[in-house]
Amino acid sequence: MSPQSDLLDEVTPELVRRIEETLDEGRPDEVKRLLGGLSAPGQAAVLEQVSEAQRDALVALLRRDLDPEVLTELDEDVRDDVLDQLDSKDIAAAARELETDDAASLLEDLPEAERREVLAELPAADRAEIETALAYPDDSAGRLMQRSLVKVPDNWSVGQVIDHCREAEDLPDDVYDLFVVDAAGRLRGSVPLGRMLRTKRPVPILDIVDPDIPSVPAMADQVEVAHLFRDKNLVSCPVVDPERRLLGVIMVDDVVDVIDEEAEADLLKMGGVGSDDMHANTIRTVRLRALWLAVNLLTAVIASLVIGQFENAIEKIVALAVLMPIVASMGGNAGTQTVTVAVRALAMGELTAANALRFIVKEIAVGGLNGMIFALLMGGAVLLWYHDWRLGAVIGAAMICNLVAAALGGTLIPLGLQKFGVDPAVSSTVFLTTVTDVIGFLAFLGLATVFLL
Amino acid sequence: MSPQSDLLDEVTPELVRRIEETLDEGRPDEVKRLLGGLSAPGQAAVLEQVSEAQRDALVALLRRDLDPEVLTELDEDVRDDVLDQLDSKDIAAAARELETDDAASLLEDLPEAERREVLAELPAADRAEIETALAYPDDSAGRLMQRSLVKVPDNWSVGQVIDHCREAEDLPDDVYDLFVVDAAGRLRGSVPLGRMLRTKRPVPILDIVDPDIPSVPAMADQVEVAHLFRDKNLVSCPVVDPERRLLGVIMVDDVVDVIDEEAEADLLKMGGVGSDDMHANTIRTVRLRALWLAVNLLTAVIASLVIGQFENAIEKIVALAVLMPIVASMGGNAGTQTVTVAVRALAMGELTAANALRFIVKEIAVGGLNGMIFALLMGGAVLLWYHDWRLGAVIGAAMICNLVAAALGGTLIPLGLQKFGVDPAVSSTVFLTTVTDVIGFLAFLGLATVFLL
User: Fold this and answer.
1) Among A145, A197, A422, B263, which residue's Cβ finds the most Cβ atoms within 10 Å?
2) Nearest CA to CA, how far is B347 from chain A (Å)?
3) ipTM computed for the complex
């Protein structure tokens, strides 16, 4: 991972500090000049990095001068904060300049009443498009698509298509494929621009069409869309309704955002963070995290109840209390390794019913072998530390038990959650730690009770 | 996260099982027919999901019939295994059909001698291109780029460019932008195909060129390239040498692979897994994971040494042994939340010197507040459990100490590692657990010694 990027070269910590200082010194024109020199993602990065009070001051200063693209680049928490400060006229002005998909995502989180106000400010055509987009479920292909595309009838010639493109003044630069539709608007296929450029004018467009291009239904989940782009190396993909009528097109840059979002969500979920709370305020962050900590407290209490059953053993051999966290911790770490590999493989479609059994068997073998390695290591260390070979043998045996249990838990828990339709990234680790703590303490203290007392 | 994708619809567990059975029954033609109906990513998925022995049998069966695209889609461990079975003539035949960047990544992991054999089998032009690609460092823009692009002199007219495209028979379909270079081969800018289509033939190409397009140096790291594509919503990006001479072009689908790789690497590193070992064999997996477990064993032993200092207290109040894992575990979980947010924000360039202090202060506030919440909860529970308000007060105070320590460790450790050029995703959690275990046991047992004995 390298922190260097074009954006980081543009928005240096020094620049952010300079903007903050200039703002504090009350020199609005200089602030505007500094911000004006930045790209939209750059301005978004500045708004994300300054303090909340300074962000509010910046937004108040810019208002209508704020590039609408900046709004689409902002983190959700920051964007909500910025939108709070703009009135419905400002937001409508921004929405008008954006692609339908971006405008829809700008409006989706607004309170119902304000959203209606903003929509009322928009020209009828824009309003209808945005309302159609908002009618699709969140995270669906219909929400992700844009409507501006080049669509031509299937009875045209290449020459007619070229003339049409020349006349259409507002044709966006980022068009890479033309779509051919029949009289009912049903998708017949696509033609890459490069191919059209190389074809003579009288040739019917249908002669050079790719009929078997992939398309997605508007109701498809964005994760499926991302998989499709990945599998087929797509740059754009048409979106169709159940009758295969062409509705819009999804571009790869929007899919890159989806891939980033999904990767972030998986990483954060595995780390016990529900959503990216980096830009949330303190109270919201406390609330988001407390929920997860409460679940973990329950796990820890269950483990304590197990220990409580062996108070008698601990009173007699206090070394048990000293050593028991080692067994639990090694199980937790080994299990986390397995869970991580399983969750990623499930997300990428690499772990399925076809190879699940092989995966479980391999993980148990890995757990058993690593269990033996660390049983020897730790058993030897305890022998040296406490000069008691029976204690060494007990910790070694407990280590093997717990690393095998970790392998079983680390595979069966995510597979089971997935089977029951629960996202394995969210809750696998907490179930796993319960297993490895309970088995770790039970095996170590139980074996000690049997063999050492 | 949804497991449904086009690929998963194509490669169902039933199909994989049917291929395995057909193979076992010795019906090679039927196996070929089943595989032949699949796309390249589909065939790759099958090779990844069958057992190692069956994979070897499949490769032996297919050999030259194996679509070279399949090799580029395979996971690294599986690909190495497949390449082991092909001789240099087979590999050369595959390399010839691939883009330079894919061919280079096919050859990069071969043993030196075999790589030279494969290169010797290739036509001189292909060999030179692949050798040039291999000369760039792994994970650099130079390695990622492909050389097939449309490059036109800056003194041509649009008509000349169109004629040139018509004559170039082998022009790939996935060309979206033309690149304009001066007499010395230096990049002057690019022209989107759509714009050229709309321009009259006599117009000089320089009149419609975008001169300020982003480009990357060939030595740039692929992570920087991915950031650039993200920030500028690019579909392709030219690669230049230090004199700004055009060397090649990077396409967005290769960048999507980079983004996937990086996200996977971060997730796996945070989970204590060095590399995607899902497809590695058991022994290799044991070795990869044992390293990390050994580091964790050290952490656990350090925590035990801390507990060892309080044997006396534990002997007198055995409840301390029962309760102490709760304090340590809550600290570990809260710290992991903070570390996860910090690591992700560092990777995305959202956490910089400009807002680090604000981030640390917020995390300490969050830690303190959650500390108080769980101090009250756990203190109350202990009061009910052991009927000892002093023990409740001690566990509460220790909880607050450890959650604040977790916030400090969770922010300072990744920031410090990043500052010293160490990847924070790899080692943050192990340092953090050391902090939260040591402080957790120290605070709880120390306070108990002072106030309860």
Assistant:
1) A145
2) 6
3) 0.87
